[in-house]
């Protein structure tokens, strides 16, 4: 039952986020991109602080040790981001202001909605983006599996949070792939296949966490550090721009919506394990 739930959750997060990204990039939902960023930031922070971290701290492990893992996780994802930026810059032989690393090309391209910035990458770069995206999705699958093993409802919340934060990510991927071809369908299929690697990560994660069940709280803290880093380093900075009073109110409302959605999902059926 848990393995089936992991498979469905990771597939929904990995592939569902790609299709939602396509609707926001190419379809009638394009005007809601900023709202999606706000809601994703709220959902990620709520999942980390209201569910994953409390679940980990209830394990009885020394809080000092878990906070240390949280700190190291944040530093790790920062360094990973820097490594991707460095690799991306050398790969394209110039510093692109909107193309941030293979897995994060993404957030800035999606946030500014200006695919022209990504129009120059060489054709080989699209495969680098897909490779980096696949690795990133594989990691997401392991994190989702950790949450499902702790509690099925917690896994569903984690899958929702991953789906939310992968949407702007995949929007950038689609922009990069579209730069090398005018075929939207081909770009969508390629990114969908990369997103499907999330399910593979979930299957490996199920086996890995099952073999190391005593370390489950640490897996949950690492997942939390990932969500917190993405929310505060990637999404929130894109929302920090001068807006009208009504736009600011809408931004705050969508941020709150992400928090409320996660809270409501966790409240359904009580807090049983």
Rough shape? globular
Average pLDDT value?
76
- The number of helical segments is 9
How would you classify the quaternary structure? Answer: single chain
Give the N-to-C terminal Cα separation: 15 Å
Q: How many structurally independent domains?
A: 1
Radius of gyration: 18 Å
| Record field, number of beta strands | 0
By helix and strand content, what is the structural category? mainly alpha
In N-to-C order, the SSE pattern is HHHHHHHHH
- Content of β-strand: under 5%
Largest sheet: none
Please explain how this structure is put together.
This protein is mostly helical. The protein has one domain. It is 81% helix and 0% strand. The protein has 9 helices and no strands. Helix 4 packs across helix 6 (152-180). Mean pLDDT is 76; it is low at 90-125 and 269-273.
Care to give the gist of this entry?
The chain is 81% helix and 0% strand. By secondary structure, it is mostly helical.
Keywords for this entry:
273 residues; disordered C terminus; mainly alpha; single chain
What's the SSE blueprint?
Blueprint: H1 2-26, H2 33-57, H3 63-92, H4 105-112, H5 123-150, H6 152-180, H7 184-211, H8 216-239, H9 245-267
Helix pairs in contact: 1-5, 1-6, 1-7, 2-6, 2-8, 2-9, 3-8, 4-6, 4-8, 5-6, 5-7, 5-8, 6-7
């Amino acid at each position: 039952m848990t393995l089936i739930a992991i498979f469905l959750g990771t597939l929904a997060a990995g592939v569902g986020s790609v299709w939602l990204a396509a609707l926001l990039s190419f379809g009638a939902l394009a005007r809601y991109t900023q709202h999606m960023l706000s809601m994703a930031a709220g959902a990620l922070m709520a999942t980390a602080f209201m569910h994953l971290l409390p679940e980990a701290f209830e394990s009885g492990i020394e809080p000092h040790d878990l906070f240390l893992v949280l700190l190291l996780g944040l530093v790790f994802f920062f360094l990973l981001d820097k490594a991707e930026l460095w690799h991306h810059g050398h790969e394209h032989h110039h510093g692109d202001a909107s193309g941030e690393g293979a897995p994060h090309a993404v957030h800035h391209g999606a946030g500014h909605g200006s695919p022209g910035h990504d129009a120059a990458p060489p054709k080989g770069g699209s495969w680098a983006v897909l490779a980096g995206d696949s690795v990133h999705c594989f990691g997401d699958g392991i994190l989702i599996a950790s949450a499902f093993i702790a509690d099925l409802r917690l896994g569903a919340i984690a899958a929702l949070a991953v789906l939310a934060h992968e949407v702007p990510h995949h929007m950038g991927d689609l922009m990069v792939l579209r730069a090398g071809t005018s075929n939207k369908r081909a770009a969508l299929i390629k990114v969908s296949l990369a997103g499907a690697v999330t399910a593979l990560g979930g299957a490996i994660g199920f086996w890995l966490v099952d073999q190391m069940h005593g370390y489950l709280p640490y897996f949950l803290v690492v997942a939390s550090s990932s969500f917190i880093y993405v929310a505060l380093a990637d999404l929130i900075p894109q929302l920090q721009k001068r807006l009208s009073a009504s736009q600011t109110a809408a931004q705050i409302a969508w941020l709150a919506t992400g928090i409320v959605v996660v809270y409501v999902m966790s409240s359904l059926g009580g807090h049983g394990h």
